[in-house]
Amino acid sequence: MKETFDPATRIQDMLQFDEYGGVNPAITDSSTFTFLDPETMTETFLGHTEGCFLYSRHWNPSNKCLADALAAMENTESAWVTASGMSAITCSILQICSTGDHIITSVTTYGGTFAFLKNYLPKFQIDVSFVDITDLDSVVKEIRPNTKLIYTESITNPLLQVSDISSLSSIARKHGIILMVDNTFSPMMISPARLGADIVVYSMTKFINGKNDCVAGAICGTEEFINILSNVNDGTAMLLGPVLDPLRSSAILKNLHTLHVRMKQHSSNAMLVATELRKLGLTVRYPGLPDHPQHDLLNSMFNKEYGYGGMVALEMNSSGLANEFMRMLQMEGVGYLAVSLGYFKTLFSNSGKSTSSEVPQDLQRKMGLNEGLVRFSIGLDNHIERSVAKMKECLEKLHVI
Ligand code: PLP
Prior knowledge:
The chain is an alpha/beta fold. It has helices at 7-12, 38-45, 61-74, 85-96, 111-120, 136-142, 165-174, 223-229, 236-240, 246-256, 259-279, 295-301, 319-331, 361-367, 384-397; strands at 78-82, 102-106, 127-131, 147-153, 178-182, 199-203, 217-221, 283-285, 311-315, 335-337, 346-350, 373-377. The protein has 2 domains: 7-256, Type I PLP-dependent aspartate aminotransferase-like (Major domain) (Aspartate Aminotransferase, domain 2, 3-Layer(aba) Sandwich), CATH 3.40.640.10; 260-397, Alpha-Beta Complex (Aspartate Aminotransferase, domain 1), CATH 3.90.1150.
């Protein structure tokens, strides 16, 4: 039987045996590891020993189990887990780029990423061009001899634009540039490495963990890149040291095994919310709606059974109305007024005033991020129709519908 690529099946097919036969790999609660002889310690330090562990900032067995599962999901040779999504992003960028290099990035990215690219990298004289990533010509126009990296999010935060990863990969390859994709909004749904991305990064804080009980990140790529990142002499992940605690990585690994089920429910709930809000005549951004500008593109590149994702953006036209709406939604129990996403309950926030507040207001307006935009991370509600009915009641009380 010819099987199509399925990230969930790739995880399911992995057998990770614990030393004592536990179905969950044991948590290795050690920062350092013993050796029977000093020569093996030296060899391990030099990276010459397969399966030996030295020190947990370098590798830890629990972190390795999670990293292996992520590499399986992404179909990359290797992966590395970090203490936050931001450290996954910053370590990867700092590993690739040196003083004098140039980066092309989507102007719409998570606010922290934007701030790093805009405000932090200049101190290393790394130049960054911010483009509309859906306009491939604008990407090509910005390429310079010193361009090292094209950076984007599969589905951008918070405007929910879809990046054409295959075309960006062709552009990058043609010019010897690395393509790095943040797939935080769309695990399982989109497999960026299969579409040609060289490096895939995640904030595992979001859908992958799904519990909002920790902050974590991941980098998926070639074995060569992960080895470079973790090199004891000049690897950014090793030297900047954003280590994920093994206790956390063990918990995330267990949650990863239910990610496919959760993504389907997030997506089908979000589709219903977006469709019903649209029926009310509201301005809704959702990649699953046929009139979303990249709906057809997403249809051509996603792993269909996981749907169009759990993120919906609703335009309330003013921050005052947006605030009032969110206050009422929380009172009605629709979910929480909170940043972050991928949680089992619905979360909502006003992006321009929170997770994208690092982006200057004039640039927010230029990119189409209005002050009334409410970003929803739709939860796993068993009866999403009830939640939609409550949303409608709030909108009626506000005379929006
Ligand atoms: N990437 C995206 C798309 C995000 O939304 C976030 C956080 O909101 C991050 C990266 C940063 O991740 P973390 O908060 O885990 O550092």
